[in-house]
Write a structure and sequence with these properties.
By secondary structure, the chain is an all-alpha fold. Helix content is about 80%, strand content about 0%. Helix 1 packs across helix 9 and helix 4 packs parallel to helix 6. The protein starts with a helix and ends with a helix.
Length: about 260
Amino acid sequence: MIILVIFGVLCGMIASMVGAGSSMMMTPLLLYLFPLITGTQFTIQTVTSAALALTLFSTATASIRYHQAKLIPYRYALILAVSGSLGSFISGSYISQNVNHLFVLILFGFIAVLSFIFNLIPIKENKVRKPETILFVMGVIIIFFLGITTGIIGIGGMVLFMPYMVYVLHFPIRKAIGTTTFTGAMIALFGITGKSVAGMMYWKIAVIVAVGGMVGGYIGPSLSKFFPDRILRYGMGVILLSIILTVVIDIIHLFK
């Protein structure tokens, strides 16, 4: 239990410093490092349920702060949240029951690769204006599929939607962050609900790492001020690349 708390604190702390998703880091820790330390191997469903809980706790906490700062335009955020939540509930309650370990790893690796690529492209403030209806509808569809992904692997991938919100829908960056954070929290909530309905939510492990993640997330911002932004961005890239290499090696091993 202590190791799980430490994992949660480390993931929350590093994620809040470098901007990487805490659940993205937690997944390989539970899959690979935890068995090496304890000799106990978690099932892929246990790992994804823990990742979902960590996503919910971290994004819900952040959403409260964005709400207080009035950085969540609910007119758009609620529509996106409903679409993504529908996707995560469907995948959490049904699709995730019918996928194997290898499929989850491949999907996780794909999201990690995209996150790594997007990390190399800094998002800059774009001209702000009201989103065009057709483009917003396309965004709603994209969020639905991101919700399906979340219900399967426990990771929201909201970082992948950020460029679309800023460059296509023309949201201010801070409101785009607030919107994706709120949407991510709702997606994780309904993903957990779906997994609970299907009897695939493993609460003991999930709650431990999620609470640890919240503690780490509170500590991280205080430490980040001691590091230049460039170092933090490089740090995020190194973390994502390490995750990608680890998962690729495991996938190759499973194919043998």
